[in-house]
Write a structure and sequence with these properties.
There is one protein chain. 77% of the residues lie in helices and 0% in strands. By secondary structure, it is mainly α. It has 2 domains: 311 residues, Orthogonal Bundle (ABC transporter involved in vitamin B12 uptake, BtuC); 44 residues. Helix 4 packs parallel to helix 9 and helix 5 runs parallel beside helix 7. The radius of gyration is 22 Å and the shape is globular.
Length: 362
């Protein structure tokens, strides 16, 4: 292992530990006060209960099961504490970590695939399609689950339409993908504007506008259970293929010469990134700048090698969006939408990075 690889490994380990620390600290953000000691005991008790439940199903009368039962501490806290931690704060923190990580790694993968550092995960129309789907769900008076499902399906459908439009002679040129994404995104945005025009200005229109701003204020444990598995699935695929993105960044001809089918690889990367982005956006609304800015910070730390850049972007994105969500919760009496804060923080910082790097990758 070279000195550079050891340095990159230390950076990645530090970011993972920082992400865990930020996640734990975020559990204390809120108007209901919980002491650190109480938080640790509550989390430990729930963990011990889960271990005991698993062992009880495997070996009901075993000595290990009895030992695990003795480890479950008696509750010395109010029931409200468990409700706040496990129904409100923990799902929100986990979603912020997952969505931030997913948007960041998708942005890094797209920037490598398209050989363009100005690309973000919404390039192919996934966020525009998700916004249209959510607006349709709101207009039809759907439940929260129905609105999220409509956003997820329309986001995936928009990217599928982009991919079909870009296919020429059984290939998928990069330029055609970009142009098709612009076309589909424009159509979805036009239909979204029509939906807002037709919406009831006293009820439906404010709901649509607030959803489009992005927020985790109303997420529940069920939202986390629905969104996190597909996000983790897409992230896993991107991590497994991260070394192949280095070949794509060299160009299609070079990738073919090294034994990689660039069209097939692009398809897999697009599917994985779309699943991650659509699942995240379906529960949080549209959150911009994360997938564009965070990969640049990762390059400043470890360079353009996607084998290390993707894991670093993953950790950075989780930290960043979790801190932004903490800021949204704690800065004012009325919670600020995440899309506003990510733009306020991300746009000036991106301008600074462009100035510092003179438009380069690192």
């Amino acid at each position: 292992m070279t000195a550079v690889e050891r340095r990159h490994g230390r950076i990645l380990l530090g970011l993972i530990l920082a992400a865990l620390a930020v996640a734990f600290a975020s559990l204390f953000v809120g108007r209901y006060p919980i002491t650190p000691g109480t938080m640790v005991r509550v989390l430990a008790a729930r963990g011990a209960e889960m271990v005991y439940g698993a062992l009880a199903r495997i070996q009901p009368d075993g000595a290990l099961t009895e030992f695990a039962a003795r480890l479950v501490p008696a509750a010395t806290w109010e029931e409200t504490v468990e409700t706040v931690v496990f129904s409100i704060r923990l799902p929100r923190v986990l979603l912020a970590l997952s969505i931030g990580a997913g948007l960041s790694i998708s942005g890094a993968a797209f920037q490598g695939m398209f050989q363009n550092p100005l690309v973000s995960p919404d390039l192919l129309g996934v966020t525009a399609g998700a916004g249209l789907g959510a607006a349709i769900g709101i207009l039809l008076g759907g439940s929260t689950v129905a609105i999220q499902l409509a956003a997820l399906l329309c986001g995936i459908g928009a990217v599928a339409l982009t991919y079909v439009m870009s296919r020429i002679y059984r290939t998928t040129p990069t330029l055609m993908l970009v142009l098709s994404g612009i076309v589909v995104g424009s159509i979805c945005n036009a239909l979204l504007s029509l939906a807002k025009y037709l919406a009831d200005p006293h009820d439906e229109l404010p709901t649509i506008v607030f959803w489009l701003m992005g927020s985790l204020a109303t997420v529940t444990r069920d939202d986390a259970l629905h969104a996190i598995p597909p996000i983790l699935g897409g992230i896993t695929v991107l991590l497994l293929l991260r070394w192949r993105i280095n070949l794509l960044s060299m160009g299609d001809d070079e990738a073919r010469a090294l034994g990689v089918n660039p069209d097939r690889l692009k398809t897999v990367l697009i599917v994985a990134s779309t699943l991650v982005t659509a699942a995240g956006v379906s529960v949080s609304g549209i959150i911009g700048w994360v997938g564009l800015v965070i990969p640049h910070i990762g390059r400043m730390l470890v360079g353009p090698d996607h084998r290390i850049l993707l894991p670093v972007s993953l950790a950075l994105g989780g930290i960043y969006l979790t801190l932004i969500d903490d800021l949204a919760r704690a800065s004012t009496e009325v919670e600020i939408p995440l899309g506003i804060l990510t733009a306020i923080v991300g746009a000036p910082f991106f301008a600074y990075m462009l100035r510092r790097t003179r438009g380069g990758w690192g």
